[in-house]
Amino acid sequence: MAKNKNKEKEEIKNEEPVVEQQEATQDDQQQQVNDETPQEETPAEEPTPEERIKQLEADIEKEKKEYLFLMADFENFRRRTLQEKQDLIKNGGEKVLEGILPVVDDIERAIDAISQGGDIESLKQGVDLIHNKLMSFLKSNKVEPIESTGELFDTDFHEAVTTFPAPSEDQKGRVIDTVLKGYTLNDKVLRHAKVVVGQ
Questions:
Q1: Which of 49, 66, 83, 135 has an alpha carbon 20 to 30 Å from 197's alpha carbon atom?
Q2: pTM here?
Q3: pLDDT digit string (tens) for 97-114?
Q4: What is the CATH number of the domain that holds 179?
């Protein structure tokens, strides 16, 4: 009988730590749940009306400064662009004029040769060379002569200075003679050809 009592006591002793262990495990789980539960954040204090007004005034001042900087930049850009445009208009023909100068030099040499009484044939050849040089320069700058004599009269390219009875039926409405040659620049009429039209 005493043995049985001792045995029961030992079993109770053995069971007690299990209960304590279970209680400890439950405490740990409760602690873990508490850790995972988001803590309620304390709400930030609302700014007072005076603080809000100061903040808005500071924002307005900042925006005003940025606007003034932007306006100053735009004004500088506008002035610079206007200056560049004026320079372009003023010096736009500089390259073309520079290209004409060699032709002017040739013409002056031809005038000197004429004044010294040179050979007429060589003078004529010299003038032809100058003319060809000038026409080549114009062509390199996209200036082309307008074909007119023998062509159908076209008001886009020709300007009739007079009419003349056509020598034949097929000459009616055509250019019989060119009084002044016309030119185009990049396919745009630079000067209309002045022509005589058959009627």
A1: 135
A2: 0.55
A3: 888 999 999 999 888 888
A4: 2.30.22.10
